[in-house]
Amino acid sequence: MHELLVLAVAVVALMGATTVVAGLVGRMLRRLEIALAVASAAIAFFAMLFVGAEVVMRYAFNSPIPGHLEGSELLMPIIVFLALSYTQSMRGHVGMDLFLDSLPSRAKLYATMGTLLISIFVCAVLAWFSAKNAWQLWQYDDVTMSPPYFKTWPSGAAVAVGYALICLRMYVQLLHLWNPDRFPANEPDSGGFHAVE
């Protein structure tokens, strides 16, 4: 419980620091999100080629690629979590907004801001514990159970990075909702966060 309290204080302090330089953070975050989304797409393409090559090697040459299952499983979190923040900025996550759509615009704004704030703290907890797990995997030099013994910590690190960046993206969106004139959306082709349009 003590660790969660310290994490909450750290998140609030980081939110305050981010507010001071929100414009710069938003622009840098946008560039980073695009780069990570491109990397995620490239890794997904590689995974597709890897699995395709394994199928050909297994059925055409009766010589499966060692570690193909573990390798593709380790690529999945990297593919998903590197693009998590970018997807949030593009408003690409599935949302249940039936209740929100029935609210008056002011209540909708506050509900969206409250949801973002709760989501920031939940994702911060997930980022923290994912980072601790990735660190532990790196310290133990953890590898898969079968040859060629892939390292597992990059997948854990991708989860932590993805959650940390989505926290930052949601906070930039929260600031934009709070004061759109002072805090730009820093989203592609966007006049603001979708929930209050």
- Helicity, as a percent range: over 70%
Largest sheet: none
Distance separating the two termini: 38 Å
Overall geometry comes to elongated
Q: Which residue ranges are poorly predicted, with pLDDT under 50 across at least 5 consecutive positions?
A: 190-197
> What is the count of DSSP helices, taking H or I runs of 4+ residues?
7
Mean pLDDT: 88
H and E order: HHHHHHH
What is the beta-strand fraction?
under 5%
The radius of gyration over CA amounts to 20 Å
How many β-strand runs? 0
Which structural category fits the helices and strands?
A: mainly alpha
Describe the structure.
The protein has 197 residues and is mostly helical. It has a domain at 33-91 and 122-197. 74% of the residues lie in helices and 0% in strands. It has 7 helices and no strands. Helix 1 crosses helix 6 (105-140) and helix 6 runs antiparallel to helix 7. The radius of gyration is 20 Å and the shape is elongated. Mean pLDDT is 88; it is low at 190-197.
